[in-house]
Amino acid sequence: MRLFSxxxxxxxxxxxxxxxxxxxxxxxxxxxxxxxRLIVPFAPGATxxxxxxxxAQHMTQAWGKSVLVENKxxxxxxxxxxxTAKSAPxxxxxxxxxGAIAIYPATKLDMPFDTMNDFEFVxxxxxxxxxxxxxxxxxxxxxxxxxxxxxxxxxxxxATTGARSNSHFTGEMLKxxxxxxxxxxPYRGGAPAMADLVxxxxxxxxxxxxxxxxxxxxxAIKPLAISSGTRSSTLPNTPSLKELGYPEIDTAEWWxxxxxxxxxxxxxxxxxxxxxxxxxxxxxxxSPGLExxxxxxxxxxxxxxxxxxxxxxxxxxxxxxE
Length: 322
What we know:
Oligomer: single chain
Radius of gyration: 24 Å
Largest sheet: 9 strands, mixed
Number of strands: 9
Low-confidence stretches: 17-26
Helix content: 40-55%
Strand content: 15-25%
Number of helices: 11
């Protein structure tokens, strides 16, 4: 019996030592030691996908390990964000998120994840302000004329990229602040909405500046105001809503890198350092309207918390439900 006990003890000790060696070997492996999954919660072709592929290409070249973009689309980005939240916090799954992670909880009661507690906020990538644009034949050339025109008792339809999108909520803030009569018409993305605006099927749109710029340049549509707190260098002659007397409206589409909660800090630090070589002024030339938006992880987290509060207030005030 004693012999058996000694053998069992020796066996368990050897297993423990082997396990320790395995763990230590894993912990000392350079990161990344295998392919990394970079989730993009939207379809190819959009700004989110553009940023994801630029980042993935750079990281693959810099690290010598594949960083693979996975377009995990659906539910306005909710599916991709949820997959990220539920992934192992080992640094091998990250996500190019949009500000939608702060909008979902404003109207959705049965959220599959907790925005503030299920993610690590790795880095802010950039932002694009909205621009209030109208068809070239709309009878207003300034925002003041636009407000006067849309207070004549008639309901004016306005297009956005979709229900409960950032542009939708910006439009509702605009209605509340100005008292203008607008009726929301959600589209399935910026491209089809812009196509209808250019064709004259709808007269007003709250558009991403990136989406709008080619058509502003061609003269097919007219820009009236920028939604962010300051003017855009891409459209310097168009005033911001803040300077027009609506300081409460300061919105923009933004993109940031997030990871599952408890992803090791050294791994996130490595991503941040490498991103400094990617997210530079040179990237702006490839996506007109995109702005650098430098922000620490703590500042990014505070922004998300602030927007969670703002969008819930907008949803309640405008009776926006799921």
